[in-house]
Design goal:
It contains ten helices and no strands. The longest helix is centred in the C-terminal third of the chain and has 31 residues. With 237 residues, the protein is mainly alpha-helical. It has one domain. It is a multi-pass membrane protein.
Length: 237
């Protein structure tokens, strides 16, 4: 057996042991015992964050969320490096006949989708949602123009240049927010911003800040990714 196979088997065995230990110690389904819930609930109320999912993502495990954000940024950088921009913008819309009702619905739903995405991002600490979900809604909302049969309209209206800068800036500001917590005498990504009043829009401290930054990064990153895929797909046609 080759050395690579031995090392791989040892790694798989270690991961399997960790999974077995974790699953065998989990509380029974439907039981009143839930250790993680008992830890998250007091933390959410202490940090004035009604949405406990956002409290987990942007407070308890904000460092893990930074890693997830970095993966999106790396995907954008990798796509831009591998798919070089074409010499000129495609001249065709790349779509066939679109029903007038579909075209009208796409144009009407564009502002609704953008407003809905913004709402999901900025209220992520209060209600179900947050930066990841709202960012995806924002990015896909712009592309209703393409589904409506007009790639040219999409190319004119999407802020592609701004998205490239916004995606990088949001990623950097996430790290800066973490350093502010470290500089204040706490720890990296500590929640040190004033928490505000429970249930109000300007509350939950850095949970709101990080959620908004994630929303910007995800929305801008997906717009950039899809723009490069669209250009190359239409160019091949």
């Amino acid at each position: 057996m080759r050395t690579r196979d031995v090392v791989g088997a040892a790694g798989l065995a270690g991961v399997a042991a960790l999974f077995i230990a974790a699953f065998t110690r989990m509380p029974a389904a439907g039981s009143a015992s839930h250790v993680y819930r008992d830890l998250v609930l007091p933390m959410g109320f202490r940090e004035v964050t009604p949405n406990l999912v956002s409290s987990v993502n942007f407070d308890l495990r904000a460092l893990d969320t930074l890693g997830e954000e970095t993966i999106v940024a790396a995907a954008v950088v990798g796509t831009l490096a591998l798919l070089q921009p074409p010499k000129k913008e495609p001249e065709t819309d790349g779509t066939g006949y679109v029903l007038p009702a579909v075209k009208l619905a796409g144009f009407l739903l564009l502002p609704v989708s953008v407003l809905l995405g913004i709402d999901i991002v900025v209220h992520g600490h209060l209600t179900p949602g947050g930066g990841f979900q709202g960012g995806v809604v924002l990015a896909t909302g712009w592309h209703l123009l393409y589904l409506s049969g007009s790639y040219r309209a999409l190319a004119r209206l999407r802020p592609i240049d701004w998205c490239e800068y916004a995606e990088a800036a949001a990623t950097g500001l996430y790290v800066v927010t973490g350093l502010l917590g470290l500089a204040s005498g706490g720890s990296f990504l500590a929640n040190v911003v004033p928490l505000g009043q429970f249930g109000s829009l300007l509350s939950s401290g850095t949970v709101l800040v990080l959620s908004v930054l994630i929303g910007i990064e995800v929305a801008a990153g997906f717009v950039v990714l899809l723009s490069r895929f669209f250009v190359h797909g239409l160019e091949e046609r």
